[in-house]
């Protein structure tokens, strides 16, 4: 038997290009269905985990999926915003804790999540370096954001204007990084967290009467890290002005209007118990209610049901591909046997029986399948190691 495998190894190595092509085809035949199964299972677990940890989400009436993706993964924008009055409505009901959110702006492409410290406690977000907010204009960076932008404590991070053509809008806000959050492997790693009042200042609702417009911008590298400030001519200041909240002008920032009408994009509602959850759901049954309440786990479950149906279509395609690959492998073996007739005839002359030919071809196929299986295991293992770090829908 050792001699059979020796001949098989020598033959496959001599025709290594052909052998590599066969190994690649077999690996794909194994890897695609296994990878699809693992990825879909991983996706379902990740999505379901975050949705299950969030009992209820309240927002303006509209698309439930849109609201769920926005509140859980900071994706997209609801068609309409809700207000602080809706958050107060939940708190005053004594049925649930209300955690308001305003996720409308971005900084260096990363979503800015305006919320309260209750959100940090609810998501179990820990400050790995620095501290939490001390004043308006402070921000906390998710682990991925801090790494990608190479930012550290006391660095500056500029907000992006909602509309670059809106020349009469509010100026960008230069936020101060006061804390770096520990990595969680969730969409929270890919966000910048600020207090609600800071988010309202970014929206132009709050402003200060002290000198908040600067005629100079921080030097910013390609990765967004601040290195200092550069003076610019006074006549160019209008093109690059920004707002910055400092210890000197922090007390001058204030808000006009009824705070109950200030905007929110979503509200996390954490019921005290199952009965409170049922009662709270009942308060949003009216058709003319401008707000809606959703169970994220149910909404994400409907999304996953669609994904599973698509997976079934892929499984049928992979089954067809496996049949085609098997047919091609059989054809390859038959043709290889035909081409190697002179080789087999020589083996007969030196005393090898017909069974030796079957053993030799079988050993070659076993080696090919073994190598393909090992490659599949290595690739799958690498994906399993990387998968927990993937921030899906974030």
Class of secondary structure makeup: alpha+beta
Total of helices: 12
Kindly state the number of beta strands. 17
What is the end-to-end distance?
A: 54 Å
Report the uncertain regions: 210-240
Q: What general outline do the C-alpha atoms trace?
A: elongated
Cα radius of gyration in angstroms: 31 Å
Quaternary state reads: single chain
Helix content: 40-55%
| Percent in strands | 15-25%
Average residue pLDDT: 82
Biggest sheet details: 11 strands, mixed
H/E topology pattern: HHEHEHEEHEEHEEEHEEEHEEEEHEHHH
Describe the 3D structure.
With 394 residues, this protein is of the alpha+beta class. It is 48% helix and 20% strand. The strands form four sheets. Strands 1, 3, 4, 5, 6, 7, 8, 9, 13, 16 and 17 form an eleven-stranded mixed sheet that branches. A two-stranded antiparallel ribbon has the order 2-15. A two-stranded antiparallel ribbon has the order 10-14. Helix 2 packs parallel to helix 12.
């Amino acid at each position: 038997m050792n001699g059979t495998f020796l001949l098989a190894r020598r033959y496959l190595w001599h025709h290594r290009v052909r052998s590599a092509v066969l190994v690649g085809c077999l690996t794909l035949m194994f890897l695609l269905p296994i990878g699809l199964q693992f990825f879909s299972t991983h996706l379902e677990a990740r999505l379901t985990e975050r949705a299950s940890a969030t009992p209820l989400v309240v927002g303006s009436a509209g698309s439930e999926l849109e609201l769920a993706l926005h509140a859980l993964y900071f994706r997209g924008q609801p068609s309409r915003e809700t207000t602080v009055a809706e958050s107060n409505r939940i708190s005053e009901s004594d049925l649930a804790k209300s955690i308001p959110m305003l996720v409308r702006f971005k900084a260096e492409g990363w979503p800015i999540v305006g919320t309260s410290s209750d959100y940090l406690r609810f998501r179990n977000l820990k400050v790995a370096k620095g501290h939490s907010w001390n004043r308006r204009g402070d921000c906390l960076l998710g682990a991925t954001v801090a790494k990608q932008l190479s930012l550290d404590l006391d660095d500056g991070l500029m907000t992006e204007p909602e509309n670059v053509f809106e020349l009469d809008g509010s100026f960008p806000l230069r936020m101060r990084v006061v804390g770096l959050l520990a990595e969680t492997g969730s969409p929270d790693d890919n966000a910048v967290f600020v207090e609600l009042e800071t988010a309202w200042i970014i929206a132009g609702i709050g402003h200060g009467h002290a000198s908040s417009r600067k005629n100079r911008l921080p030097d910013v590298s390609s990765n967004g890290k601040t290195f200092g400030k550069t003076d610019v001519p006074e006549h160019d200041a209008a093109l690059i002005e920004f707002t910055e909240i400092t210890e000197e002008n922090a007390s001058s920032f204030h808000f006009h209007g009824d705070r109950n009408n200030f905007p929110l994009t979503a509200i996390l509602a954490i019921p005290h118990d199952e009965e409170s959850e049922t009662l709270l759901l009942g308060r949003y049954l009216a058709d003319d209610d401008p707000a809606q309440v959703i169970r994220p786990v149910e909404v994400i479950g409907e999304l996953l049901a669609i994904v599973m149906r698509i997976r079934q279509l892929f499984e049928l395609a992979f089954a067809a591909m496996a049949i085609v690959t098997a047919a091609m492998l059989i054809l390859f073996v038959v043709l290889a046997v035909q081409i190697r007739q002179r080789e087999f005839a020589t083996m007969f002359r030196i005393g090898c029986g017909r069974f030796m030919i079957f053993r030799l071809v079988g050993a070659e196929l076993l080696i090919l399948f073994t190598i393909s299986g090992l490659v599949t295991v290595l690739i799958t293992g690498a994906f399993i190691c990387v998968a927990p770090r993937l921030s899906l829908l974030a």
